[in-house]
Amino acid sequence: MGYGPGSGSGSGVRAVRGSKVTHLALRNMKDQGERIAMVTAYDASFARLCDQAGTDILLVGDSLGMVIQGDDNTLAVTMDEMIYHCRAVARGVAAATGRAMIVGDLPFMSYQSAEDEALRNAGRLIKDGKAEAVKLEGGAEYAPLVSKLARIGIPVMGHIGLTPQSLHALGGFKIQGREAGQAERLKADAQALAAAGAFSLVLEGIPHELAAEITAELPIPTIGIGAGPECDGQVLVLYDLLGMNEEFRPRFVKRYENFAVRVRTAVDTYINEVRSGEFPTAEHSFSREPPGKERGPAARVAAAGGVVAESDSGDFALAGLGCVQLRPLNGGRE
Question: Distance between CA 193 and CA 146 in Å, rounded?
Answer without folding.
Answer: 7
